[in-house]
Amino acid sequence: MSRFTIILFSFICNFAAMNARTIQGLALSSADSTAVIGANCRLFTADTILAATTANAEGAFSLETDVKSALSLEISMTGFSATTIIIESGAKNLNLGAIYLDEGIALSEVTVTGNTVINSDGRTIVYPSAADVRASATSLSLFMKLPLAGLLADPVNRSISVDRGTPVILINGVPSSIDEVNALQPKDIEKIEYSRFTPARYAASGSSGFLNITLKKRDDGGRIYAWGRSAVNTAFVDANINASYHQGASQWSFQYVPSWRNYQKVYDNTVQSYIGDDFRTDLEVHDRNPFYYHRHALSLKYDYSPAANTLFSARFNAAPIFRKSRAIAHTIDSQLGEYDNNNITKDRGFAPSLDLFLRRDFNEKNTMEVQVVGTLSTNDYRRDNNYIFSDGREDSYIMNVDSRRRSLISEVSYIHTFTDKTSLSAGFQNTVSHSINTYLSSDYKPVLKENNNYVYARLGQRVGKFYFALSTGAKLYWIDNDLNERTFIRNLSSAQVSWNINDRWSMQGSFRYTPSIPSLSSLTDYSQQVSPYLTSNGNANLKASQNFSYSLGVSYSSRKFQASFQSYYNNTVNSVISDISYLGNGMFLSQSVNAKYNHMFSNYLSLRLSDIYGFGANLFVDLTHYRTAGVVNTYRLTSLSGSLMIWWNKGPYTISYWRKLPGKYLSGHYVGKEENGDTLQFEWQPDKHWTVTASWMYMFDTKGTRYPSWDYSPVNPAYRERYIKNNGNMVVLSVSYAADFGSIFRTARRNLNNSDTGSSLMKL
Fold it and tell me: CA 311 to CA 750: how far, in whole Å?
């Protein structure tokens, strides 16, 4: 790593003499000479956009290009008349000084006719086209159409993933949830910054990728959004209700996202064996697993910004959830004969939290953010597993646990911008928690404590057409797990380079070292029997796995066609896998263990065509090869996966079809297949407020959602088929309503948004 750093810094120094032409100035209002914050500044040559940026809190902007010919600079902002400035040819830097924008009466918004894709500072910036916005009734529908390689928007689960992981999502610089993204209107999205590379400040969170959504500045102020969907042939309901109101320096926001499922046609078929030195049994299990849950995510938020450089935010979050599932099974056992199994599991959780945040911009070069989050988590887990044998004998395995967790997360982040080419950021995060698990079937009541720290620093440097970023950090994790005390101290480091070859071609490369420290629950040492043959326990001796990741990619973009290709290699040492070992006397132990390694080599291809007489298409293909070394044997797997999105828009009507090609994945000796999915969708927008959508999901598939898996363990070889028949040929109707009024508050900016998702409870 040190040799790599020296080489990279030498490379930067060798390019220090490369100075691109810089165009800078101030965007001010002609009415009162105040800064026009967020003004869109775009540099053109003919019809090609060379660079784009937005004015900062002082109205300042800076654009860079190596083109020496005559240029045109366009500055636009909703509520102001657009201004175009002709810049004569030359190679010298140019300071335009103050540029005054007149307030425009008739101008309601700036329309981009074609997708504008810009690669800047290691990120892809997309300005959605008017055609894609017209063809998208929801923000998720818009993301399915955008040229963002590696990003998968799933309309069935209403989720977004990047390279199979969950990305960091920001809205106007504020870390946000997928529920908040789903509440956005496509017409309100000004631009999207995207990267498959997770920034250093989020490296310890396990996130994959980065997404920052910037909304258009509006003059309406309150906002109401309501969305709901339900299937006509199965029992599920989802909704999203969002409202905000601004007055003076304050803004109040409210969001409620309920979700309900009651599925009865859920089936599992399993063929497996338990093999020991002196023991073997073969089992064939057929069971029905109906499940039921309801979840209610609630968020209340207050923002106070007395000045443009100060923001205080307080947010209360609560998401009570209740889950209940059953397993009604019949087993053919070569040792015990035939018997029935009746399993009932109930899980009730509630984790309210209070989030306090303060941001202060000391000047245009120095910013500090401070956040404190306190969480009180309660979880009551009940599992009653009953076996009824043919001879009338009955066995019961009961796992009833009450878990109480208290946690406090604190973080401070500092950002210093030396110039428009060089920036430095650093931060520190601390999590302390105190958990008590009460196992009701025994007298065991362990107290578990953790002290989790993460400190980091990142340096970004732009040199001509190149952008470099280096970051390093340390993860310090102390836990007191009842009778066991563990300490983990690990480094996190990364390097990133991007090269904007010209206005159409760009290349990106990265390296990352990120250890994965075991969770508190996986280290818990408490054995519980879950079946006649199987006992489950944590592993207090589990080691931290070490991930070494490398990527190299190239992308091409024109007005109607975009393509990208990326190769990705990951080597995980001491990878954590689930394993079963033989204890003797016909009993086996299930727990997490360290395997030797896990290699993954992926090649991603993304192709996009849009705005051709209303038609568009987005294709994503992934070819991945896995090679793992488990506790005993090595395993290999090659998998092809992808997704296809096709749409056509005419006026207020849009017809689209999305299909996912699920791929397989390998973890140790376990092979799983991703969730399948497809949907044919019709959207109708009769006016600017209402949207009506009808979808046909899992078309011609009577088994609905399917989850096949294989286990090649020499101790517990198995094949499992799980499918949710309720989802087969599912017809879903949804309706949404959105309205704006008043004077909206768009100045809130924050980058910290921690939340406690940890648990000390191992659920079986």
Answer: 8
